[in-house]
Amino acid sequence: MHTRAELKGDKWVINGRKQFITNGYDAKLYIVYATTQPGAGITKGTSSFLVPRDTPGLTVQRCNETLGGRFMNNGEIVFEDCAVPKDHCLVENVAMSRAGVYFRPGKIIVAAKNLGVGMAAFERAADYVQNYVQGGRILLKHQAVAIRLADMATRLSAVRALLNEAIRAVNAGAHDAEALCNMAKMFASVEIFEVTKHAVELHGGNGIMLDFGVEKLLRDASLFMHRDATVDISRFKIVKSMFPQTAGVYAGPEK
Ligand SMILES: Cc1cc2nc3c(=O)[nH]c(=O)nc-3n(C[C@H](O)[C@H](O)[C@H](O)COP(=O)(O)OP(=O)(O)OC[C@H]3O[C@@H](n4cnc5c(N)ncnc54)[C@H](O)[C@@H]3O)c2cc1C
User: Fold this and answer.
1) 42 lines ligand 1 (CB under 6 A)
2) Whether domain 100-250 has CATH 2.60.40.1270
3) Which tens digit of pLDDT belongs to each residue from 85-109?
4) Could you tell me the fold of the domain covering 4-91?
């Protein structure tokens, strides 16, 4: 966490930069996380602040163009001696631990959205291969095509099953909820990227053409492997929550 906030008199003064912020380009009010206890670790030294867009020192520097998920904008925000009143601090020092309540359902929401992209890809591909004729018969009657469709359906069912397990674990307050949420999010991103890749390939050249809209699903699927933690960082988080005593040292961000 490079962004810092320091209490000076009756104001918190924020300095730093936030990149890749979803809807950050046109937001009117930001919740900003910043280090307030350097060296205390991210869970014990991070605070959250309410920062209105028109606060002096806050600059929305750019709107990033993205490969997928273009329905939402993506902004970069810079804070230069950006001062907010003391009472704009929402949670002091333990903001990241408190936000953990949100992080688990957050992973589930991301994985569920990701599953929706995969289902759309499957439905589009299933429709196409049952109607498009090549080599004298509909594509689905070519065994290699049928195998791909079966592979897509299997991956989707596996993602759905893991997602449901994670949901049940969160609802039950189970000890493995953390690991399962990260598993569901990570697994969905990898598998559904493959599902959308199959969908594009099964459409042949049409899959690449913007008119068909299948390439959009591949582009949308790609961003799930990065947002809310990369695939590898999610794997670290899984191991960390399974083996906190040993894996926490290298897998955790707190050192
Ligand atoms: C579409 C989109 C929306 C986003 N929205 C938001 C948002 O609203 N708010 C927000 O705060 N962030 C947001 N992000 C940022 C997102 O959370 C980060 O991009 C993501 O966590 C990866 O961080 P990074 O880009 O800095 O990659 P890096 O950390 O630089 O990683 C680069 C590569 O190195 C690997 N890597 C990094 N550290 C290690 C390590 N210790 N060991 C081994 N491998 C490592 C990663 O797995 C990755 O492959 C968004 C990103 C995207 C793509």
Assistant:
1) no
2) no
3) 999 999 999 999 888 777 778 999 9
4) Butyryl-CoA Dehydrogenase, subunit A; domain 2 (2.40.110)
